[in-house]
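Consider the following assembly input.
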Amino acid sequence: MASLTTLSIAGARDGLRAREFSALELTQAHLAAMAGARRLNAYITETPEHAISQAAESDARLARGEARPLEGIPLGIKDLFCTKGVLTTAGSHILDGFHPPYESTVTANLWRDGAVMLGKTNMDEFAMGSSNITSYYGPALSPWRRPGSAADLVPGGSSGGSAAAVAAGLCLGATGTDTGGSIRQPASFCGIVGLKPTYGRCSRLGIVAFASSLDQAGPLARNVRDCAILLRSMAGHDPLDSTSVDRPVPDYEAMMGRGAKGLRIGVPKQYRVDGMPSEIETLWRQGIDWLKAAGATVRDIDLPHTKYALPTYYIVAPAEASSNLARYDGVRYGLRVPGASIDEMYELTRAAGFGAEVKRRVMIGTYVLSAGYYDAYYLKAQQVRSLIARDFATAFESVDLVLAPTAPSAAFAIGEKMDDPIAMYLNDVFTVPANLAGLPAISVPAGLSADGLPLGLQLIGRAFEEDMVLAAAKTIEDAAGFSHGPGGAR
Amino acid sequence: MAALLIEGSNGPWEIVIGLEVHAQVISRAKLFSGAATAFGADPNTQVSFVDAAMPGMLPVINRICVEQAVKTGVALDARINLTSVFDRKNYFYPDLPAGYQISQYQQPIVGRGTVTIDLKDGSSRTIGITRLHLEQDAGKSLHDIAPHASHVDLNRAGVALMEIVSEPDLRSPEEAGAYLKKVRSILRYIGTCDGNMEEGSLRCDANVSVRRPGDPLGTRCEIKNVNSIRFVQKAIEYEANRQVDILEGGGAIAQETRLFDSAKGETRTMRSKEEAHDYRYFPDPDLLPLVLDPAWVDQVRGSLPELPDPKKARFIADYGLSPYDAGVLVAEQASADYFEAVAKGRDAKAASNWITVELFGALNRLGLDIDRSPVSAAALGGLLDLMTDGTISGRLAKDVFAAMVESGKDAMTVVEEKGLRQVTDASAIETAVETIMAAEAAKVAEYRSGKDKLFGYFVGQVMRAMGGKANPQALNELLKRKLAG
């Protein structure tokens, strides 16, 4: 029997039902792995007691033959999801000691289906970052290293802790959130699969808000099928989230097997950006060939407003964030630094509670919404956003999916790219458009870079066609036969 | 007349006023959360996670509040916008938990409308409504609990408010008062706001400027949060005179926000234009645009009761009331209903007089609303009936009414208990007449010799002897016949 921590979710589900091992054993194997991998700093909070008690209940249900869809599956939960009675930090000092008296809808759905929470995973502060280095709790590290190098690599971000934990066998799957690429880019960096669903597919209730019109929860796992399994539990309409959509949740796992036959794949010219490493270009070509070989047709498409996506994103997201983060004022919960006046208390609390990147974005957001600047920045950005969405709508009249790289590079080392926020923002160049258009998109590992690090390919689909995105991703996954893991083949 | 001109040293100044009314919506739950809205609960007992702006909490619009706003818009004869947008108004204050108020900025739910105001001289004027929008109320900061700390009560945070903005069409404190009374009356008729200014469920900001008649608008000052109609009028009067003094002294008005000090009867600077907030409005990404179904709006339109203005017109046309009396009776739905109950099948003018003079006088003395009147409409109607059928005279009716107010009993019971029934029995009156004539033989002789002015004296004497209960008409006839000899 393979190690319990290298199983897929589907494999663990079968093993549990066949009583090859117990949920408790499965959970304890992961708790042990977590204890042995604290160097990675993948978890901000480990919740072993919680996990053991949930696993015990799962075993009881398994014994009674009442297993639920995710019965006994141990997961990591990004620390942006509020978990009742469990410290929830959003990677920020300002939420010091915050134990929500409520559960996010997405995690409640997972527990309803029998999943087990191992802990709360590390992340960039308030999900602002592409490297996990902005976390107040210190950076999470990728379990990957360049062969022959001891340099610690970033796992990507903002769902860096989730991606690192999944890749390192510290959970079978994890939740993430994706505002501009925060699921897909770390999935690409860590050699795993990450899916950002359609905006409105998963409830945002109980997820600490970064940019409300862009935020969307999704799964990270070690294969496409596992993402399909997790998404089915996470998704669904929530009457308490006015932007969540009331549509039935299909059985993604069952629909995933359709393959790529007959699918029309678009390759956007505008994604061939200057300075893109040739290995990314080569991987992209490889992806095209795999899909063609599986019976898809491929054509070039135009997404003419692509070059405006990143600047648009870096106006819209900070604007919403500047307002969303106003509630962290030291009055009701989290950190409070006393001051002589209420204004001084606000200033001292927010100065001590927010890190540099959060402050930068709050200031950018405040600026672009200010009187005299609103029309030139925020309003213009919203107009461009509509054009970007229209580009996709037009493209999807002639193709079913868009294929592109996930990120312009493989993972970089801690310390690289750290001095220039703009260089860091460029990580999101391929992922941001799907957020602006609200479309489902997945990153699936497709190969290794010249220095031996994973690279992902991205598929973007029509709204609510996660099934098609997953099917094509499965085709690439099968063709790529990506069997690498950190430290060698799994 | 309604427009009040302030006489300056070089001619008159005109006052220009626009009012912003903040009306708390009558609804069981808040605008975006399920928490209760009842007034007077213990601090922080009616606060949901949404109201407290806990991380990850999201607003969900309360359909009832939308219906109330649409009702109000229809009652203000205003355009209902089928698509409206909620925006965030960003500022930091401890009683604003999210750091922003959800409001409506560029696309409010209700557009232009009108309100007709009734003035003391019986004239009416139409005042423009610019817009009505829905927004969240803030919580309350409490500064008097501890010496070195402030406390916050979030019970009110998130309660729905309608902000009703008028055009700068008002020209005097009297007009401003009439406008507020009319808006309050309409809100109460349709049940969208209880209009209670003492509890703060109706609050008013006044924008005041002055100008030479015919000139463009002057620079305005906004007076914040005045909590009674009388104070609004006083604040406007003070502020207009202050501005005239500055302008006549060669100064200029600084655009600013001012507070009214009701103890001193004056306004003072709260913040200058330079200190004004930049609210950084933008559409709330947590809420989709609010889209109304036109059929539903029509349904709401059809559900409205008769409003004060049409009711007033009907009272004038159908009951023959004066515009003034009709205006007094329709100001509150309850008094209008009371009037109609009394007037039905009776002399409407008498009903109106009895209500506006005797009943309102009594209620005023007792400090009671008409809903809690000790004399019901049916009981007052009964009193009028006793006058009509001659059971009591008009003079005695006032005594009966006073006893009814005192005891809460109906008219007939009072009449019976006090033996006030009018005597129409001719023999009883005749006996009394004969007794008086016998006792006053000298005066009878004078009368008969031509001094017929004495007739009134005899009426008075007989009435006094009969305790006022003689039917006046029967007495007159009988006395005339007997004196004639």
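The mean pLDDT of chain A is 96. Ask yourself how this observation constrains the way the partners meet.
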